[in-house]
Design goal:
Layout (H helix, E strand, L loop, with lengths): L21 E4 L2 E3 L2 H11 L8 E5 L5 H10 L4 E6 L2 H12 L4 H6 L2 E5 L12 E6 L8 H6 E12 L3 E8 L5 E9 L7 H6 L2
Parallel strand pairs: 3-4, 3-6, 4-5, 6-7
Antiparallel strand pairs: 1-2, 7-8, 8-9
Family: Belongs to the methyltransferase superfamily. L-isoaspartyl/D-aspartyl protein methyltransferase family.
Organism: Salix suchowensis
Catalytic activity: [protein]-L-isoaspartate + S-adenosyl-L-methionine = [protein]-L-isoaspartate alpha-methyl ester + S-adenosyl-L-homocysteine
Length: 196
């Protein structure tokens, strides 16, 4: 987080280092720095050099860039964002950051799509981060999580919890609640743009 300057990833004129979420347009937010730190810490063992990580709802690209630095040029960090304009601006943001060489070399990529479906092209993933609250854990994300992998995802509607999901080597799933949270909903592009 010290290497990737958050100021490059928030709207102009907003206080980049305040510890609170910020609106980034399109009924989306960039999470508060403490939530980014929490997720990075929870996923740390699954973000080693050469590993693959999926960032669902990659927004401005900040956390995807952090993930890319952690997995390095031998790994792959994949951001999926269903709002084209956010995906385009995240690429511009990343190009100004310390993660720019990884984007250029192809070990960091941003894609437009429905993150609830994951991104099968680079699966299985050692780590999956979801930046919006799902009513339940999407099966495609579980399917794309590598045995030994970990997913961090906010789950719930009005009452939400940050869930830590570990896929055991035998394919079974272990789930624990980390902390209560408040995220925007993981939804379709149309519903998000309508503010539903």
């Amino acid at each position: 987080m010290e290497t990737i300057d958050r100021a490059l990833f928030v709207p102009d004129g907003t206080p980049a280092y305040v510890d609170s979420p910020m609106a980034i347009g399109y009924n989306a937010t960039i999470s508060a720095p403490h939530m980014h730190a929490t997720c990075l810490q929870l996923l740390e063992e699954n973000l080693k050099s050469g590993m693959h990580v999926l960032d669902v709802g990659s927004g401005t690209g900040y956390l995807t860039a952090c993930f890319a630095l952690m997995v390095g040029p031998q790994g792959h960090a994949v951001g999926v964002e269903h709002i084209q304009e956010l995906a385009d601006s995240s690429i511009k943001n990343i190009k100004k950051s310390a993660a720019a060489p990884l984007l250029k070399e192809g070990s960091l990529s941003i894609h437009v799509g429905d993150g609830r479906q994951g991104w099968p092209e680079f699966a299985p993933y050692d780590a999956i981060h979801v930046g919006a609250a799902a009513p339940e854990i999407p099966q495609p994300l579980l399917d794309q999580l590598k045995p030994g992998g970990r997913m961090v995802i906010p789950v719930g509607k009005m009452i939400q919890e940050l869930k830590v999901i570990d896929k055991n080597e035998d394919g079974s799933i272990s789930v624990r609640s980390e902390t209560p949270v408040r995220y925007v909903p993981l939804t379709s592009r149309g519903a998000q743009l309508r503010g539903c």
